[in-house]
Design brief:
Layout: E1 7-8, H1 12-40, H2 44-56, H3 58-86, H4 90-125, H5 132-157, H6 160-170, E2 174-175
Parallel strand pairs: 1-2
Helix pairs in contact: 1-3, 2-3, 2-4, 3-4, 4-5
Length: about 180
């Protein structure tokens, strides 16, 4: 057999990345759907938050809606990418890197907007619900899910063995 043919066995890291990607995408999609259902159902918490953000300014409300819609789309992209990564389809490497970059940019912008404008407005509107401990917990969760995870995905997808595995599959080898 030549170097361009044969079988490429997915590393444990690629399997783990795919599984975590599927879980991440599923959680993002479920969270967005739950938020939309709660908003459509007239949930008082969501109504209070959305009204506070709308009163803070049109730009913040638009940014919130844009982030929600973009997160929904990126959730589907990640789900599709993670499934593609399981089979080492050639497009999945580039798409995973693109998803990571866009998710990182969106999360960084959302973190800045949330800490700078939205959380202070929510704290003024309902100080008993938006305590420092809750703000700290939400901020660290946002950093972990929004910045560390896509950063790790981007780093891992650029490692030598991942690039070699995709190159071998692109050259005709089968993925296993």
């Amino acid at each position: 057999m030549t170097a361009t043919h044969g079988v490429v066995v997915r590393s444990t890291g690629l399997r783990l990345l795919s599984i975590l990607g599927i879980l991440h995408a599923s959680l993002v999609l479920m969270a967005v759907v739950v938020i939309l259902v709660m908003a459509a159902g007239g949930d008082a918490r969501i109504a209070s938050i959305s009204q506070t953000i709308r009163q803070a300014g049109t730009i913040l409300w638009t940014a919130t809606l844009f982030t929600l819609a973009t997160s929904f789309v990126l959730g589907f992209v990640m789900l599709y990418n993670a499934i593609g990564t399981l089979s080492l389809t050639p497009w999945s490497q580039r798409a995973m890197k693109l998803w990571s970059g866009v998710w990182l940019a969106l999360s960084l912008a959302a973190l800045i907007v949330n800490l700078g404008w939205i959380y202070p407005a929510l704290k003024l509107a309902s100080p008993e619900r938006f305590t420092f401990a809750r703000l700290l917990l939400v901020t660290w969760f946002h950093i972990a899910v929004g910045l560390l995870w896509p950063g790790a995905v981007l780093f891992y997808m650029n490692t030598r063995h991942v690039k070699q595995a995709y190159a071998r599959v692109a050259g005709g080898a089968s993925a296993m």
